[in-house]
Design a protein that fits this description.
The protein has nine helices and no strands. The protein is mainly α and about 180 residues long. The chain is elongated.
Length: about 180
């Protein structure tokens, strides 16, 4: 059985990978440079030109840029531009950015787990990501962590704390695999 963050169904992960690969393939086949004006993903996000910047953000994200990976996640999370809301793609992209220690992505991943959007509803996992975001200085992460602690048993909080430590100790390579 394949064990993944998103659950034990390997088709879920394969579908997500295929959708991301298709986006990158379409970009490569289009022959489009980052943009005619050499604008970055950050430039497009600041100007709220979601559709114009999507391919630039996707290209930069595939090259390893954390901000761009988060931007793609937020575009799918909020359904910005002509993109429909897609919690699975949002979670996949935010997870990748969170594993690069992006505090904002860690916070949003905690929200997705707390609501069960794109990932299973798991308050323990939500607590892990909220705790990591809080440790990285996120006030919102600390507030969400405190709210989640009211929903968890003492044993679940202890399990979350152990998972949090293991996640950080492993430099995010052993985060919440089920």
């Amino acid at each position: 059985m394949t064990r993944t963050l998103m659950g034990s169904d390997p088709s879920y992960t394969n579908e997500t990978i295929m959708r991301t690969a298709l986006t990158v393939l379409l970009f490569c086949l289009s022959g489009v440079a980052a943009s005619a004006n050499d604008q970055t993903c950050s430039d497009f996000m600041k100007s709220k030109r979601w559709d114009d910047g999507f391919l630039t953000c996707a290209s930069e994200a595939e090259a390893g840029d954390t901000f761009s990976r988060r931007a793609i996640g937020l575009i799918y999370l909020r359904g910005l531009g002509s993109r429909d809301v897609d919690y699975v793609l949002a979670a996949n992209n935010l997870l990748q950015a969170a594993r690069q220690n992006d505090t904002v992505s860690q916070f949003y991943l905690a929200i997705l787990y707390s609501k069960g959007n794109g990932v299973p509803r798991e308050y323990t996992f939500a607590h892990v990501w909220a705790s990591i975001a809080a440790e990285n200085g996120s006030k919102e992460g600390a507030e969400l962590r405190d709210v989640l602690e009211k929903l968890l048993t003492s044993a679940e909080i202890l399990a979350s704390e152990l998972l949090t430590r293991e996640c950080i100790r492993s430099d995010f390579s052993n985060c919440i695999q089920r």
